[in-house]
């Protein structure tokens, strides 16, 4: 189960780094990431599923930021990679929990 710690680490990194890098605007942009935090911490698959859609939005926003602002490109690309890694880890976690639940049900 190394997926859960990876998701939590990526999520925490996005939450903490956005305000540091982008100031007040970054802090405001990080607020929606607080919504799934409790469910991620508790390992709830449903939260991982809908949280992946939220993180996918952030990945797209960071890619757009990288393509439009050359000065912020390194940070935006780094955040996009972190968001993409979190997205994939969330999906894999949901899949693993689904397979596990099916095995238990049999």
Pick out its properties.
106 residues; mainly alpha; 4 helices; 86% helix
Structure annotation, total helices: 4
Residue share in helices?
over 70%
Any idea what the shape is? elongated
Low-confidence stretches: none
Mean pLDDT: 92
Specify Rg, calculated over alpha carbons. 15 Å
- Sheet with the most strands? none
Structural class: mainly alpha
- Quote the beta fraction: under 5%
What is the N-to-C succession of helices and strands?
HHHH
- The end-to-end span amounts to 21 Å
Please count the beta strands (DSSP E, at least 2 residues each): 0
Question: Can you tell me about this structure?
Answer:
With 106 residues, this protein is an all-alpha fold. The protein is 86% helix and 0% strand. It has helices spanning 3-30, 37-42, 45-68, 73-105. Helix 1 crosses helix 4 (73-105) and helix 3 runs antiparallel to helix 4. The longest helix is centred in the last third of the chain and has 33 residues, at 73-105.
């Amino acid at each position: 189960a190394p997926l859960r710690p990876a998701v939590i680490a990526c999520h925490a990194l996005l939450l903490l780094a956005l305000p540091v890098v982008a100031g007040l605007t970054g802090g405001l942009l990080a607020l929606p990431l607080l919504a799934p935090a409790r469910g991620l911490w508790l390992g709830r698959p449903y939260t991982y599923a809908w949280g992946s859609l939220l993180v996918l939005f952030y990945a797209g926003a960071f890619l757009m930021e990288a393509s439009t602002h050359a000065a912020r490109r390194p940070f935006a690309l780094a955040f996009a990679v972190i968001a993409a890694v979190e997205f994939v880890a969330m999906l894999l976690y949901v899949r693993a929990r689904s397979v596990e639940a099916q095995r238990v049900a049999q």
